[in-house]
Amino acid sequence: MGSVLLAFGVAIAGTVVRTRRRRGGLVPQAAAVAMVAGALGDMIAELRAERDPRRAVIRAYSGMERTLGARGLPRHAYEAPFEYLERILTGAQASAHSVGRLTNLFERARFSEHTIDVQMKDEAIGALVALRGELEAAT
């Protein structure tokens, strides 16, 4: 549900920005960030309730990708997670720590059979919370 809400919020923000650009006006960046931050807040609450730590870590990373995509830094289909990380760190107003930690956790959760525990889930959520704060502070 949180993923759906985040995707919906990002889609609305993108549509509004494109429409305003065509009409000659531009949505204030603060309004777009507020929409994305609200959707991220909903997703964070849902991730905290997620019982499967592996699924929570993967969904947290997906939320980060959508959020950065809404800010003009989408992941290209040909990019591996760490290639994307390298590229976005030059263009995003987010710290290497939060984005890097979430990428590391995602790689482990998505591509390995190692155990993903509640502590890792909490770290992923913490990284997403930090990212939301950094994006809000950047406006």
In short:
The protein is mainly α. The protein contains six helices and no strands.
How would you characterize the overall build of this protein?
The model is unreliable at 1-27 (pLDDT under 50). It is built from 6 helices and no strands. Helix 1 runs antiparallel to helix 2, helix 2 (29-49) packs antiparallel against helix 3 and helix 3 (53-70) packs across helix 5 (96-111). The longest helix has 22 residues, at 2-23. The protein is mainly α and 139 residues long. It is globular and about 40 Å long. The chain has one domain.
User: Which secondary-structure class do the elements indicate?
Assistant: mainly alpha
Biggest beta sheet summary? none
**Terminal-residue CA separation:** 27 Å
Number of helical stretches of at least 4 residues: 6
Instruction: Using the alpha-carbon principal axes, give the shape.
Output: globular
N-to-C series of helices and strands: HHHHHH
Q: What is the CA-based Rg, rounded? A: 15 Å
Report helical residue fraction: over 70%
> Low-confidence spans: pLDDT under 50, at least 5 residues?
1-27
What is the overall pLDDT average? 77
Into which percentage range does the β-strand content fall? under 5%
Q: In total, how many domains does the architecture comprise? A: 1
Number-wise, the strands total 0
